[in-house]
Structure of MFS transporter:
Amino acid sequence: MNLGFLGLQFSFGLQQGNMGPIYSYLGASEGQLPLLQLAGPMTGLIVQPLIGALSDRTTSRWGRRTPYFLFGAVLCAIGLLTMPLSASIVMAVSLMWLLDAGNNITMEPYRAYVSDRLDPAQRHTGFLTQSAFTGLAQMLAYLTPSLLVMLGMDRDWVDPHGIPYTVRTVFWFGAALSLGTILWSVLRVPELPLGAEERARIVAAPRGIGATLAEVGNAIVTMPVAMRRLGLMSLFQWFSFWGYWTYVPYVVARNVYGTSDPASGGFHEAVLTNGQMAAFYNLVACLAAFAMVPLVRRIGPGPMHALCLVAGGIGVLTLAHVTDKALLFLPMLGIGLAWGSTMGNPYAILSNAVPAERTGVYMGIFNMMIVLPMLLFSVLMSELDLGFVKLGFGLYEKLLGGDPRHLLTLCGAGLIAAGLAVLRVREGRAAATGATEGLAHS
């Protein structure tokens, strides 16, 4: 069931590891990077709640979620095929919007799909399995460029726009993998048929974009308490992860290879080294996701997630000061634990706190809690001069001195704060009554 998630997360891994460097190759400054990466937060903010509400109300002969899986997969494949051919920053940004739209159209129904297929007692295992596939996929996405270099491809072989051919190769492989695995998953594990009562309820529900927007608004107003409290955790958690992914290659370039020049061989090596580090922490995430299953049964997903986030925060704080390549991999243990937990435990808490018939829309709204911190990070840290207007506050330069190591220190503290925040969540070990209690107290 989750194999298609592997292809989808391979695509996300390619974005996390390569989009910052691609913009740098095309001439962007470090301070511009967060705003140039707005496509992810903005498409997630707009697309996922709408797709969630629409998929809850879809009654096609292929199922509720499947049409969105397939349409999103096609858009994702087109974006991956064309992104490494970018000839300018404008072209790369435009293709990033297409790629992120495809990823987000597919992502939200996949979350709801797991909740649809599994009963409450199985969901924490289902979401942690999905987390394991996330770790495996992103490990492969980050590691593949280094494997290509090991097989003889020149790391410094670049196209006329400065983009390495290793990037082109791995993006094209990602397009085939994403489309192929999602198709395989859909064909092998079809959705469960809707019951007569559920189908009648969906058919009787109002249709159209106005009704969809009203459904999203009503779901926000009646949001369960547990989900509201997850919002503070998400603020610190995703602000920190977004900053980490954006700037960690630049920290490695400065600390280990003594360069900040994107055209240098040292920077190319730093990008490959970051890929190896990320592959390692995603391997840790993959293994940890399975290891957490019995622990979550014992102590609950909330306390487990808190411990993992604190471990991740310590890892990020340490990484900002490491100057030896071999030692870079030690902080990845904590970061891997945090990432493996992030992709599973919060969704286990959420799925048991929301009404089953509104799983799609609440999964989409929960994604708003992911992308809004990313959007906040982009606006606060970056500054982009469009000629007629300046966007952003530029705190990366003004407050942090343009030093990515200071940014990583901030992100490490943010993950620790997220770990403390999740302890406030009354998470759903009493799964049968969580949604009712949450609605009553909201």
Q: What stands out?
A: The chain is about 75% helix and 0% strand.
